[in-house]
# Entry
Amino acid sequence: MEPVQQCAVVFVDISGSTRLYESLGDAPALDRVARVLEILQRVTVESGGRVVKGVGDGLMCSFEAAETALGAARAMQERIEGQRAVGKLDLGIHVGCHFGPVIENSGDLYGDTVNVAARVAGLARVAQILTTEDTVGRLPPGAREHTRLLDRVPVKGKQAPLPIYEVLWQEGEDLTMLGTRFGTERKTRLVLRHDGRDLAIEEGGHASVTLGRDAGCEIVIADRRASRLHAHIERRRDKFVLVDHSANGTWVGMSGADEVVLRREELILSGQGVIGFGQSPSSEGAERVEFACQ
# Structure
């Protein structure tokens, strides 16, 4: 195992590849995905980076400097957009980057930096590059002008929300103007009740809570219809978002609204309500979690 080193970790993922497999079939979709990955690999090497490994329909890469990593991310977006513009590709990409200490073992990278970079990539939308304050702080002043604070999001294992920056790579007047000043959101808390026990998601406390059959979840669900990591609830600024990861779906009943079934989807929780795992919480014998936004 190599000693700890500092580097920028970049996750780049292809957006919309799942729908492509469904619409075109496995072989044609795989061919298009492979063409995108080839472009991303080439850009990484040309920019002086290293492709660490493939991750699903994407790549994990490393760069010695933050500026080099974000320059490569911009080049990736520009190269893919160029292919889309001439009709050679119909796929987009989204990118996440974080700079920090990593441990290398057998060519792979491990540590909190890798986890944060993956989390940031998961927040990015198609044609978007997101990064962190630690990364932006290592850029020269000229490069920082091409970034903007986008949000502060909770990250598991960290006490304070993580400032997320967008890297601006497209020129034009269609860039969305940010009107919200961060830090002015309301102080809110979400109280979850399960099996006679209360658990709160709030500032200074839990930033997120996992729910499922796995013993490592903050709220352990015994029902066999529930997945091991069934869902998680996270605080995003002053809102609480339920994210389903399950095989059988998550049922949510909120006061004054019809019951909703989530299947690999998200829902903002409001008011009071109840959550069911793999079945409606109103079903006989269903295990349930009650919630109240305060």
Q: What stands out?
A: The helical segments are 17-24, 26-46, 66-85, 112-123, 133-136, 141-144.
